Amino acid sequence: QLASTYQQIKQYKKAASIQYLAYKKGFISREKDILALVNLFLYVKSPYKAASLLKQAITQKKMTYSSKNWETLAHAWTMAKEYDKATKALEIASSLSDKGSLYQQLGQIYVEQEQWGMAIRSFNKAFAKGNLKNTGATYLLLGMSYYEQKNNKQARKYFLKAAQFSKNKKAARQWLKYISGPEQKI
C-alpha cells in the first residue's frame, strides 16, 4: 500500500525501493506483480536492477519462460548497456516466438556488431519463421552480410531481392553496381 501511495504522488524511486523490499521478503510473488516491479525499475532508469530481477525470476521459475519475458529481459539488458546479455536473451526470445521479427531484430544487432555469420544465421531464421517487418531492408542487410563474408554470389541474390522493394531499390542497386565492378551493367 505504501508503494502505491508513493506512485500516486509520483515518487517512483521510493515506490520501487519499497516494492523491491517486499519482493525480497516474499510478499510479491505473482508474475504480473514482479513484471510491474521490473517495469517500475525501467521507468526510474534502473535497467540493470530490472534485468537482474527479471533474470532471477525467470531462472527461479517465478516468471513464465516465454518469448515476451525474454524479450523484456533483452530490452532491460540493452538499456543497461549489457549488450552480450541482451543478445543472449533476444536469442532465447527469438527461438520461443512464432514470428520472425525477433530474429530480424537480432540479425540487425549482429550487423551492428559486425558479426556477419551470426547475422546471416539470424536473418535466415527470420525468413523461415516469416511475419517480418520491412522485408526489403532485411534482404539488403542479408546481402551486406554475405558480401562481408566474401560470398558475392549470395550477396547478389539478396540485393536483387531487396531491389524489388521501392524503399530499398536505390541502395540495392548501388550495392549490385559495387559488387559487379565498374565495367558491368546491371
The coarse silhouette is elongated
State Rg: 21 Å
Structural class: mainly alpha
Quote the beta fraction: under 5%
H/E element string? Answer: HHHHHHHHHHH
Mean pLDDT: 91
List the helices and strands and how they pair.
Blueprint: H1 2-8, H2 12-24, H3 31-43, H4 47-59, H5 67-79, H6 83-96, H7 101-112, H8 116-129, H9 135-148, H10 152-162, H11 169-180
Helix pairs in contact: 1-2, 2-3, 3-4, 4-5, 5-6, 6-7, 7-8, 8-9, 9-10, 9-11, 10-11
What does this structure look like?
This protein is an all-alpha fold. Helix content is 73%, strand content 0%. It contains eleven helices and no strands. Helix 2 runs antiparallel to helix 3 and helix 9 packs parallel to helix 11. It is elongated. The mean pLDDT is 91.
In short:
With 186 residues, the chain is mostly helical. The chain has helices spanning 2-8, 12-24, 31-43, 47-59, 67-79, 83-96, 101-112, 116-129, 135-148, 152-162, 169-180.
Keywords for this structure?
single chain, 186 residues, mainly alpha, 11 helices, elongated
